Amino acid sequence: MAQTKYIFVTGGVASSLGKGIISSSIGKLLQARGYNITIQKFDPYINIDPGTLNPYEHGECYVTEDGHEADLDLGHYERFTGIKTSRENNLTTGRIYKAVIDKERRGDYLGKTIQVIPHITDEIKRNVMALGLKDDYDFVITEIGGTVGDIEGLPFLESIRQLKRELGKRALCVHLTYIPYLAAAKELKTKPTQHSVKELQSVGIQPDIIVLRTEHYLNDDIRRKVANFCNVDFEAVVQSIDMPTIYQVPVMMQEQGLDATILKKMGEKVGEKPTLGPWKNFLMRREKAKEIVNIGLVGKYDLQDAYKSILESLSQAGTYNDFKTQVTFINSEEIDSSNVEEKLSNMDGIVICPGFGQRGIEGKIIATSYSRKHDIPTFGICLGMQMMVIEFARNVLGYEDANSREMDAKTIHNVIDIMEDQKNITNMGGTMRLGAYECVLKKGSRVQKIYNLDIIQERHRHRYEFNGKFEKEFEDAGMMCTGRNPESDLVEIVEIPDLRWYIGTQFHPEYSSTVLHPHPLFLDFVKKSIEYRNSKIQK
Fold first, then answer.
1. Is 144 exposed, middle or buried (CB count within 10 Å of its CB: 0-12, 13-18, 19+)?
2. Nearest residue to 491 (alpha-carbon basis) of 424, 428, 409, 417
3. How far apart are CA 173 and CA 205, in angstroms?
4. Which of 247, 326, 242, 315 is nearest to 281 (CA)?
5. pLDDT tens-digit profile, the chain (539 residues)
6. CA 458/CA 477 separation, integer angstroms
7. Backbone phi, psi, residue 118, to 5°
8. CA–CA gap between residue 170 and residue 128 (Å, rounded)
9. Which of 72, 179, 332, 422 makes an SS bond possible with 360, Cβ 3.0 to 4.6 Å?
10. Is the bond leading into 250 cis (omega within 30 degrees of zero)?
């Protein structure tokens, strides 16, 4: 395959239909055919990146290995395909405009009047093409956030229109829309899809393939109607019906020939249909797993997308342990000493979630105290690890005022302190310790046995750290520092070896857990949670 081909995924009718899952599924299916692919997301909002957005606004902030704070869809891309994304895989309107304005300030445009067309659209096009030119991909899949008709999305659609004209058969548009079911009339309605496609056509883009999101099975008559009214081939209309798991979507798309249709339309040989063996084995194990392990998720964002990567990592780990992971969200703001037993005693394992700020931390500390004293498998991630450290300092070391410098700037027992290189930073966005860093594991420690490695690399997103001044006191009392960065000597992992499973990580292991390569920490945590569950049943 000589030249990179470009697939654009747009959405209409409503947001949250699953463009990221469809983009990931297309990538997975093309990858299974031997193609070298990558996927990028263009978000029309004006923030430079989602790093400063409240999770309620935009869900989880995903972090790439090169330290970019990215849209959560990049997590889907990596989990489905195993590729490593970077800052080049996620761009916002804010970044596009900033790049153009920076060029204008430098005088790069030689006195020209800067306009949306051609300057903004050229910058978008340059970023679409850059990945293909740089890394010699066979396919670059570009997902456009939002829905057709959004005013902020127009420059991206204009860029797609231009690229489709310039690239010919090397560019293709997949449009995802919604087919609603009117219960009163007992009818599925195609009109919203027709309007969405007309909206797309009005900016000069004819979709090549339409994916219909639906809760009800669509017969051939409905698909034919959409094909006729929207000016696409019948076989290029596929349905994406609700499935028990998002991981069944690639198989469903393959069964309808989506990947074969893409290849035909782009002038590629179709060849034999891949078996997707390991993927289907994962699905089969997931389906066969009947017994349930209950995991409590202690956090403050009562929104499933806020902890998306953690939820998926727990689900994957459950499957590979032949169990269904049932996750119960427990709002840390509602935990106190009078109700903690009621909320946590039925859990087989507990995850203390990451986050920022004062709200909800005392509930997390009470939760870690309960799980430590009752020897329930406990996994603290980032802020969760810091809460484990603070709880231990208060209740074992006896420092009642122990806290993080983030929450209490005046405490003398600042067992969690701000990192030295963060002290003079004033800008919030993109300035934390971000991306992949090395961590040396202590010989003979539990984490070293879990990883079966001496040195690992994991992704970070934090400003505060374990205060090394207190390390000896912690270790003398039984909380061991078993992972540290070789350059900065920062403590990355703490564990209590005498407990069933009590581990905190300063990094985010959930970012690197994929369908075919689940993360060892999550695998072992769920395994120990199942063992704890079984021991309770036997009693």
1. buried
2. 417
3. 8
4. 247
5. 569 999 999 999 888 899 999 999 999 999 999 999 999 999 998 887 776 676 667 678 889 998 888 888 999 999 999 999 999 999 999 999 999 999 989 999 888 999 999 999 999 999 999 988 888 899 999 999 999 989 999 999 999 999 999 999 999 999 999 999 998 988 999 999 999 999 999 999 999 999 999 999 999 999 999 999 999 999 999 999 999 999 999 999 999 999 999 999 999 999 899 999 999 999 999 999 999 999 999 999 887 788 999 999 999 999 999 999 999 999 999 999 999 999 999 999 999 999 877 788 899 999 999 999 999 999 999 999 999 999 999 999 999 998 888 888 888 898 988 766 555 554 444 456 788 999 999 999 999 999 999 999 999 987 789 898 999 999 999 999 999 999 888 999 999 999 999 999 999 999 999 999 999 999 999 999 999 999 988 87
6. 27
7. -105, -5
8. 13
9. 332
10. no
Q: Are 510 and 313 in contact (CB under 8 A)?
A: yes
CB-based contacts of 243, cutoff 8 Å, min separation 6: 249, 252
Helices and strands in the chain: count of H runs, count of E runs? 18, 22
Q: In Å, how far from its chain's centre is CA 114?
A: 35
DSSP letter at 61 equals P
Distance CA 501, CA 494 (A): 11
Residue 344 CA to residue 347 CA, distance in Å, equals 5
- Residue 124 token pair: 């978008």
> With 0-12 CB in 10 A as exposed, 13-18 as middle and 19+ as buried, what is 285?
middle
Angle of CA points 64, 58, 204, to nearest 5°: 90
Distance CA 231, CA 207 (A): 8
Two tokens at 531? Answer: 């063992």
Residue 491: how many CA atoms within 13 Å on its side-chain side? 27
The half-sphere exposure of 105 on its side-chain side, counting CA atoms within 13 A, is 6
CB 364 within 8 A of CB 519: no
Of the candidates 420, 451, 447, which has an alpha carbon nearest to the alpha carbon of residue 433?
420
Strand 502-505 versus strand 464-466 pairing type:
unpaired
Tokens standing for residue 171? 């560019």
At residue 439's C-alpha, the angle toward residues 363 and 351, to 5°, is: 25
Give dist(CA 377, CA 414) in Å, integer. 26
| Rounded Cα gap, residues 300 and 408, in angstroms | 19
Give the global pTM: 0.92
Q: What is the largest CA-CA distance in the chain?
A: 80
Q: Which residues are catalytic?
A: 382, 508, 510
8 A C-beta contact, residue 422 and residue 437: no
Q: What are phi and psi of 139, to 5 degrees?
A: -135, 135
